[in-house]
Structures are given as structure tokens and as C-alpha cells.
Amino acid sequence: MLAKLSTYSLLGIDALPVDVEVDISPGALPKTILVGLAEAAVRESTHRVERALVNSGYVRPMDRIVINLSPADLPKDAASFDLPIALGLLVASSQLQSELLDQFAAVGELALDGSVRPSKGTLSMAISAKERGLKGVVVPAANAREAAVVEGVDVIPVGSLTEAVGFFSGQLEIPPQAFSWSEAVAEFGQYLIDYSDVKGQEMAKRAVTVAAAGAHHLLMIGSPGTGKTLLAQRMATIMPELDPEESVQTTRIYSAVGRLDPGQPLLLQRPFRSPHHTISQAGLVGGGSMPTPGEISLSHNGVALC
Could you report the per-residue pLDDT of 208-231, keeping only the tens digit for each? Predict the structure, then answer.
């Protein structure tokens, strides 16, 4: 039997749609084959998924299993394919029947006991789901507040494989995660430092104020310990608050590299980055075989001290 589900793969900070196709051939030599340009983290998912199924009370298919991640020319390097693969195995082995598979995407890494662990880039995935016209996306409970920022998409938080199965089968009603901008600002939008912490340095403070007001670059020269970093760290506190569009842009970057604090829906403070002078070019501007943001991108809409 053939099963097909929707999920996403990160490329930079963009979430590209991936179809997870699972086919089980009864009576054939037992073997699991995973195709679709999967990297090591994805190839190892078959072992995690098999034990997660058994430890969650489901039957592991003992037939020939072919798992295809389409498009085949897109590199896939994340453990977030575990949940859709597990759901596909249950559907293909007739242990799960659902009419929601065409309406919802699924993403999440599975532990051996069947619990769902956090994944990177769920905000970008929710944005992509909205653009594709899907009704919603099933995400790890730890990432639900982050993905719920996107309006027009139902974000379903699940903490385990059994919860995901219960939702898709209709046996468990899980309300979509709610999001409130005002509550998020009150909880995560307050700085722990303040510009008033700087005593003296009137000329330097005037220069920083002018640079912050006009979004100018600023060159600070001085001996170590004279307050350059202190001023730069507090420069963000006198800049305008992040508006929703800027906040989403910055959050997507931090979400893609897994630097968003647990439970935090959005980055609501302007970021401050201070890379060491020995940083590599890839670390500064980003890159790699699987492109990832560098320090310049991490300081987007904020302050970078170089």
C-alpha cells in the first residue's frame, strides 16, 4: 500500500516542500530502502522510527519498505522527517486511516520512546504551508508558539507519535496553538540592559545616538576597556522596537540555526552580535555545503560589533 504525506526541508532559512512517499510490498524480502538524496541524519531515521513505532504500541511492518523523499535532487539533512515517515508507515500498513493527510503537513524528530523532539525552522515551515494553501501543520509542542505566529494556518502541537496519530485519525482533538503579539512583547520584549548604564563618555554616547537614529555605521577606536562593547551592546535599547515584519524576518534566521530560546515565539529584541576577529569567512557571511546563516545574517535588524 502507498502512503503520501507533506513535510519540509530547510535550505538556508527557506522551507522547501518535500513529499514523503512510503510503499510497503507484502510478501517481499523484508528490507527498508530510503531514497531521495538523504544525508546521514535522515538515513539513520529508519532505525529511530522503527523503535518509536514499537515502543508506542504499533506494529513494525516486516515487509519490503521503500521510502521516497521527493524531489530527489533536493538535499535533505535533518531529523525532522521522522514524524512524517512514521505516519507514512502506519498509513501504508493500514494501522492509520485519515482524511487529513492532504490538508496538514507534519514535522518533528522522534525519540526512541515515541516522544517528539523540537525541530529547526518551524516558523519558515508554517509560512511555506500557508503559501501552499494547506490548512495547517503538525509540529513538536516545543515549537508550537513559534509556528503559531503565522496567521491563517492551524498549528497543531504534539508531544508524541501517539498524539499525532490520534489527531490524524480523529480520535484526539487538539486545538490549534494560539498566539498573542501583546503577550509575547510583554514576556520577551524587555531588555535586561539599558543605555543609562553608561556613565560619562558623553561624546561617544552622542555619536551612538546619532548612528542609531539614522541607521548609520559607526567606527569606534580606543584602547581595551574604554567602553566600546558596552556602548555597542546598549545601542539596540535606544533603537525603535522591532515591528512584526522585522521580528519575523529575524526570527526565521535564528529558528533556522536553532538559536531561538525554548518556548519563545518571536525574537522581539534587536540582536547584538560580536564575532571574534579570528572568525572564518563562512562563519561571518554564512555558507557551507548546506547553506546556513553567518554572523552578518544573525545581526539582521540589530547591531554587529566587528
Answer: 999 999 989 998 888 888 889 999
CB atoms within 10 A of CB 304: 18
Which tens digit of pLDDT belongs to each residue from 255-301?
A: 999 999 888 999 999 999 999 889 998 889 988 777 789 999 999 99
CA distance linking residue 298 with residue 54, whole number of Å: 41
**How many other C-beta atoms are found inside a 10 Å radius of the C-beta of residue 211?**
17
CATH architecture, domain 183-304: 3-Layer(aba) Sandwich (3.40)
Domain with CATH 3.30.230.10 in the chain: 2-169
Length of the chain: 306
Residues 117 and 86: their CA atoms lie apart, in Å, by 14
Q: Are 231 and 220 in contact (CB under 8 A)?
A: yes
Q: Are 75 and 290 within 8 A, CB to CB?
A: yes
| DSSP reduced 3-state for 290 | coil
Q: Which of 197, 206, 179 is CA-nearest to residue 237?
A: 197
Locate 213 and state its grid cell.
537614529
Q: Which three cell numbers stand for residue 229?
A: 562593547
Within 8 A by CB and 6+ apart from 162, the residues are 56, 57, 114
Alpha helices (H) in 191-303, listed in sequence order: 202-214, 228-235, 244-256, 281-285, 295-298
CA angle 85, 86, 88 (to 5 degrees): 65
Classify domain 2-169 by CATH architecture.
2-Layer Sandwich (3.30)
- What's the pLDDT band for 27 if we cut at 50, 70, 90? confident
Cα–Cα distances in Å, from 238 out to 266, 290, 302? Answer: 20, 36, 11
Q: Is the distance from CB of 24 to CB of 31 less than 8 angstroms? A: no
